[in-house]
Amino acid sequence: MKALILVGGFGTRLRPLTLSVPKPLVEFANKPMILHQIEALKAVGVTEVVLAINYQPEVMLNFLKEFEAKLGITITCSQETEPLGTAGPLALARDKLIDGSGEPFFVLNSDVISEYPFKEMIEFHKCHGGEASIMVTKVDEPSKYGVVVMEESTGQVDKFVEKPKLFVGNKINAGIYLLNPSVLDRIELRPTSIEKEVFPKIAAEKKLYAMVLPGFWMDIGQPRDYITGLRLYLDSLRKKASTKLAAGPHIVGNVLVHESAKIGEGCLIGPDVAIGPGCVVESGVRLSRCTMMRGVRVKKHACISSSIIGWHSTVGQWARVENMTILGEDVHVCDEIYSNGGVVLPHKEIKSSILKPEIVM
Amino acid sequence: MESSEEKVVAVIMVGGPTKGTRFRPLSFNTPKPLFPLAGQPMVQHPISACKRIPNLVQIFLIGFHEERDFALYVSSISNELKMPVRYLKEDKPHGSAGGLYYFRNIIMEDNPSHIFLLNCDVCCSFPLTDMLEAHKRYGGMGTVLVIKVSAESANQFGELVADPITKELLHYTEKPETFVSDLINCGVYIFTPHILTAIQEVSMHREGQGHIAANIRHLSSFETLQSPTRALPLDFVRLDQDILSPFAGKKQLYTYETMDFWEQIKTPGMALKCSGLYLAQFRFTSSHLLAGGDGTKSASIVGDVFVHPSAKVHPTAKIGPNVSISANVRVGAGVRLISCIILDDVEVQENAVVINSIVGWKSSIGKWSRVQADGDYNAKLGITILGEAVIVEDEVVVINSIVLPNKTLNLSVQDEIIL
Q: Residue limits of the Nucleotidyl transferase domain (chain A) (predicted)?
């Protein structure tokens, strides 16, 4: 079976992290974002994954070679020379997705994390016998998104409504599709939107079905949602494989600590914290709702919450970092500094406090 | 009397990539020394000034940028000037004097009688020939270019005290807290080869001090604070603190005052200001480089404007003052450009207005859109900067903002940094 992951653009919403690393390789819960998806696809028998990209292919290709070998799955790239939207890349990768077997193929949006119930989705697709299946997820504020209006019992999709002013439904497109090869015949090689052009046509022919995504869902393409997404992910991990989470008197709630990280005495870590490889957390540190990327050092008595600390950065003694502070790669927050929502570009030293959210270039 | 065999070389310090986050977002794409001012890479202005010195035989660029960043430029400018221009890459920063010493064998290979040392990010008229004559009259080891500034702003720089008659450098101090002098160091120097011995003395003295300290006891961090030079590596020698300061008042160093303009190019705002200063200078030294036009066959030009020969500007556009347009730019009908730098491959569509801004490579400015800023060159958001490949859609207004590369603006923004 095959799959296409829409990696697309420059990941500007996740800057400054994406100034150092292409978005699919930014770690989430100590694993590159795209690896979460590739592993889940491999688990249901996908043998080839195509990445639709238009940025930094060299960096991606190196990473791919490494994981092809480790996972035993073929990973190839399909590079857009101009942005092709959400459907165009499928046409571009046509030859890689059709192998004559007639099997449906998965299409995923690379920013999405969830429990990836791909096995259930394959069942659902076989059952209804339609041309395309999409996952939908329930949200509180559907008007922010594109709402999928469907028949509840069969899942048959009636129509899509972009940002509806009146309530028409509370299910939105979760960015996970399972498509028959015939869908490719509907897509031209030009910038095309799958939601606006392709799916409505299939829905009109009553061949599009939607399955409500069980479990959590998050688009982690921007820092605020990345942090919320980590909470949902660790929650789900607690239920499925709680041994992977850290435990101990200094741990509160769900915390993921890489085996090569070191934590000092008298710390209080958690809830909803991920500590990456090679990190050093010195004594007396308080961490909550935050992510430390590889090689971060947090010095004594510091306090970090609701923030993302980029690779090889340091947070000084008694520093307080909170409220959506995002530190890029190699950022050094000096001792006793306070950062309230500072967004700091790579290779900077923060010598004076940031009292209100601001970007430091 | 001058020997006809007397040769002179010039060294331009170009720095490296880890310094200067102040030049972001423009520095994401290009090393600062190659950023264009008045249509020429920043480093080309001191290079051209050096070329005018009689008996100049070589120009060296010293820095720690990657060699490949400078390879193309160095080869093309050597060809153009018919003079060797070489990029010497430091394996690590050695300081402004340490770099000179590190490459001393190469620099001295033609046995020059004088060495010019210039900082690349200094914008001035580079009166190097007159300065050399003055240096020879003074007969010292080195001459420093100086300029008078306002007393309030002097403490941002190195302040010098000079004897008003002999012009000898009597005292030097870097960024002092109290007022010392309103004469500041311009970052342009002439030395005789004795400077190399002086730099070596500094390193050896520092080594000696280090040995003594190490023998006595382990330095506490407080002591390291007290004597910062002990913490520096032996081969890191700064021209200002380590050479000018100790050698002041010993009849070795002299000053030459310039009455023309002088600025440091540390930020994109200053780059725009300095581009204007160089365009104004072209009016006197190389007016053939400036554009002309009155709106009939070619666009109306106001004031000092540079337009690259490959750029296409519609005749109904009005350009200037202080505008620099780079290669392959397309400026559509009815466009108004004032005080801006338009970088390579930009498209400015019909009736758009750009004021006090820098528009990054390959960007696109939509019809009737407006990209502008107050024009305060020193303020953080004083000029609007669009990084590489930014798309400003039709009719969108961008004011006092900085936009990082690859963004599309479909809504107006003001006073913002867009990541």
A: 2-233
Phi-psi region of A155 (alpha: psi -120 to 50; beta: other; left: phi over 0): left
CB contact A144 to B (< 8 Å): no
**What architecture is the B8-266 domain classified under in CATH?**
Alpha-Beta Complex (3.90)
Find out whether A136 and A213 touch, Cβ atoms under 8 Å: yes
> Is the separation of the CB atoms in B374 and B382 below 8 Å?
yes
Residues contacting residue A100 through CB under 8 Å, at least 6 positions apart: none
Question: Which residues is A309 bridged to in the sheet?
Answer: A292, A327
CB contact under 8 A, A359 and B419: yes
Pick the CATH number of A227-359 from 2.160.10, 1.10.3470, 1.10.10, 2.60.40: 2.160.10
Report the CATH fold assignment for A2-219. Answer: Spore Coat Polysaccharide Biosynthesis Protein SpsA; Chain A (3.90.550)
CA distance B340 to B360: 11
The number of C-beta contacts closer than 8 angstroms across A and B is 24
Counting Cβ atoms within 10 Å, is residue A239 exposed (0-12), middle (13-18) or buried (19+)? exposed
Picking from B278, B276, B266, B280, the residue whose alpha carbon sits closest to that of residue B378 is B266
**Chain A residues 342-361 with CB within 8 Å of chain B:** 343, 345, 347-348, 359, 361
CA–CA min distance A277, chain B (Å): 25
Q: What does the pLDDT look like over B177-196, one tens digit per residue?
A: 888 788 999 999 999 999 99
Nearest-angstrom CA–CA distance, B65 and B74: 13
Among candidates B74, B29, B64, which has minimal Cα distance to B388? B29
Cβ separation B419–A9 shorter than 8 A = no
**Cβ–Cβ under 8 Å, residues B362 and B378:** no
* Among candidates B24, B405, B406 on the partner chain, residue whose Cβ is nearest the Cβ of A345: B24
DSSP A334: P
> Cα-atom radius of gyration of chain A, to the nearest Å?
21
Tens digits of per-residue pLDDT, B204-249?
887 777 666 555 444 444 444 444 444 677 778 888 888 898 899 9
Looking at chain A from residue 8 to 27, which residues have their Cβ under 8 Å from any Cβ of chain B?
A: 9-10, 12, 15-16, 19
The pTM (predicted TM-score) of the whole model is 0.86
Distance CA B333, CA A294 (A): 52
| Chain A closest-CA separation from residue B336 CA (Å) | 30
**Nearest in space to A28 (alpha carbons), one of A272, A242, A361:** A272
Chain-chain contact of B406 with A361 (C-beta, under 8 angstroms)? no
From CA A259, how far away is CA A267, in angstroms rounded? 17
Contact B21 A347 (CB under 8 A): yes
Of the given ranges (A184-188, B3-7, B370-374), which has the lowest mean pLDDT?
Answer: B3-7
Cβ atoms < 10 Å from Cβ of B55: 16
Residues of B with CB below 8 A from A19's CB? Answer: 28
Domain extents for chain A?
2-219, 227-359
CB neighbours (10 Å) of residue A123? Answer: 12
DSSP string, A198-232: IHHHHHHTT-EEEEEPPS-EEE-SSHHHHHHHHHH
- B417 min Cα distance to partner chain A (Å): 7
Interface probe for A, chosen from B221, B381, B404, B408 (most Cβ of A below 10 Å), is B404
Q: Out of B18, B407, B417, whose CB is closest to A361?
A: B417
pLDDT digits (tens, 9 = 90+) for B21-34: 899 999 988 999 99
Q: Do B405 and A10 touch (CB under 8 A)?
A: yes
Q: How close does chain A come to B14, measured CA to CA in Å?
A: 19
Q: Do A343 and B419 touch (CB under 8 A)?
A: yes
